[in-house]
Amino acid sequence: MDWGSMSRGETLSVPDRLSVDLERLILEGELTPGEKLPAERELAQLLRVSRVSIREALRELENRGLIDRRPGRGTIILAPGEVSKASDDVIEAFASMRTELTDIMELRAIVEPPIARITATRAQPRDVIQLEELVKSMEVDVTKERYAELDRAFHQAIAQYTHNPLLSLINEQIANQIAPSRASRYQTKARRQASSVAHRRIYEAIAARDGARAEDEARAHVYDISREIARASENNSTVRGHNLG
After folding, report:
1. Strand blocks (E) in 54-111
2. In this predicted model, what pLDDT tens digit does every residue of 184-194 receive, in sequence order?
3. Beta-carbon neighbour count of residue 17 at 10 Å?
4. What is the DSSP letter of 2?
5. How many CA atoms are closer than 13 Å to the CA of 182, on its beta-carbon side?
6. Among candidate residues 128, 136, 138, the one with its CA nearest the CA of residue 182
7. What is the number of other CB atoms lying within 10 angstroms of the CB of residue 103?
8. What is the mean pLDDT of the chain?
9. How many Cβ atoms sit within 10 Å of the Cβ of residue 55?
10. Is 29 helix (H, G, I), strand (E, B) or coil?
11. Maximal CA-CA distance, the chain
């Protein structure tokens, strides 16, 4: 892990900047569930900040359910949206389903727009900055694999910023189901550019604390993706028909 590559922001305090950067590494999968962070003293040396700043940043991440800190064991990364063991049966049942992509998109249309509305009313200033940085990362020319990582991180962050762990958990399970399609034939360069425009609109509505607009933009985004999937499926069926004929 290249700790020296972490950014420094002018608009946030040092602890908030650290927590934002560490959270993005978790959301994007750079820091994986079960991974152990360096000790506070080592992190402070690597990042050239005080141990007090490190401690405050880790406390924020712990409050958000992103890390688990225990004396004698250290700091362990948790999955975004991870909740108590009581949810294990739900997670297992969801993961075992062989669900059609159209069914997942229908679920997204039901779940994601209200989540965006809630986030617009609950997101903290550091949350809004995190979303902006994710949007900017998607607006540059990246590989479809990298875009898929950022896409997932953006939608997971929106769910995370409802500060409702159950909504974050539901969104995480949806993301697991659609992960293959995020880097599949559906993700053309034109499709990624259209998604980036939609992501910025969602972010801007959340930043403006406009819940109704955030919900509308999220719904429009999901419906647009659904139409593209339906069009791609129809084209593939036509090609298969010609091949068989």
Report:
1. 67-70, 74-77
2. 655 678 888 99
3. 22
4. -
5. 19
6. 138
7. 11
8. 83
9. 15
10. coil
11. 70
